[in-house]
Amino acid sequence: MILLVEAINKMLEELNKRKEYLIQTERLATFGTLLFSLAHELNNPLNNIYTSCQILLEELEGENLEFKRELLLEIEKEIERVQKIIRSILDYSKPGQKEKIKLKNLLNETLYLLRGKIPPQIEINLEIPEDFMVFADPQQLKQVFINLFKNSFEAIGESKGKIIVKGLENKDYNTIYFSDTGPGIPAKDLPHIFDPFFTTKGNKGYGLGLFIVYNLIKNNQGSIKIESEVGKGTTFIINLPKEEGKVINDRENS
Ligand SMILES: Nc1ncnc2c1ncn2[C@@H]1O[C@H](COP(=O)(O)OP(=O)(O)OP(=O)(O)O)[C@@H](O)[C@H]1O
Ligand SMILES: [Mg+2]
């Protein structure tokens, strides 16, 4: 454990030195950003685990069982955090098995997975023609929509609200509009929305949801952009190929 914490601290130092250079060369390449943020994010829970372990070792002979239990629970919580971070990164980097998907069915399956977590005061409208198809990996696409739905639920919160998913047919690719009537996103946050570990939810968010969405859509030869206005709501515009071999040439979104 000590070795791991030391190694991560060293890596952070090294990355910090290189960050300036990387920023100059290009707006931190996605991989560089991820590596830096990852080291940073893993470092916090690992430091906490390390400290709890040290206290536990010192207190091992002590009488206070409740205190030791608390420390172990703390360790367990931090390990879960590390696991969640690592799992999300592993999930999005899989190459995927693409196939032609009926989007409406996939969205219904996604909502089925989310059953019990959908706030009752939120209305969900799927305005997707039955034969609206996209070419993508179904598991990855479900993950995309799970993350988008969860964000909308969290943004709308206890208020009444609507989520509308629309499909628009184009020649080689299809466009999905995923909108909610939540509070919207301030203009200053919009450029960071897909960055790893960008969150406005404090300890309740990892800031990984949209980073994963972005990478999964890229993995499936698609593109994604966001339009949002405070007080009005948020729309994600996703382009995906209709069939195998179609690549979306949309520089604005890349
Ligand atoms: N539909 C939305 N409406 C308003 N704000 C949103 C919406 N979706 C995302 N955001 C903002 O973007 C931030 C990043 O979203 P993202 O899903 O990446 O992370 P998160 O939800 O904070 O944490 P998690 O990793 O658990 O998903 C959120 O913290 C929130 O501020
Ligand atoms: Mg999220």
Which features would summarize this protein structure in a list?
19% strand; 254 residues; single chain; Helix Hairpins; 5-stranded mixed beta sheet; elongated; Heat Shock Protein 90; binds magnesium ion; binds adenosine-5'-triphosphate; two-stranded antiparallel ribbon
Please tell me about this protein's structure:
This protein has 254 residues and is α+β, with helices and mostly antiparallel strands. It folds into two domains: 2-92, Helix Hairpins (Orthogonal Bundle); 99-253, Histidine kinase-like ATPase, C-terminal domain (Heat Shock Protein 90, 2-Layer Sandwich), CATH 3.30.565.10. Helices cover 48% and strands 19% of the residues. It has six helices and seven strands. It has helices at residues 2-25, 30-59, 65-92, 103-113, 138-156, 209-219; strands at residues 99-102, 122-127, 133-136, 161-169, 173-180, 223-229, 233-241. The strands form two sheets. Strands 2-4-5-7-6 form a five-stranded mixed β-sheet, covered by helices on one side. Strand 4 and strand 5 (173-180) form a beta hairpin. It is elongated. It starts with a helix and ends in a 13-residue tail after the last strand. Residues 22-29 have low confidence and may be disordered. Bound molecules: adenosine-5'-triphosphate and magnesium ion (MG). Magnesium ion binds at residues 147, 150-151, 205, 209. It holds the Pfam family HisKA. It is an enzyme of class 2 (transferase). It catalyses: ATP + protein L-histidine = ADP + protein N-phospho-L-histidine.
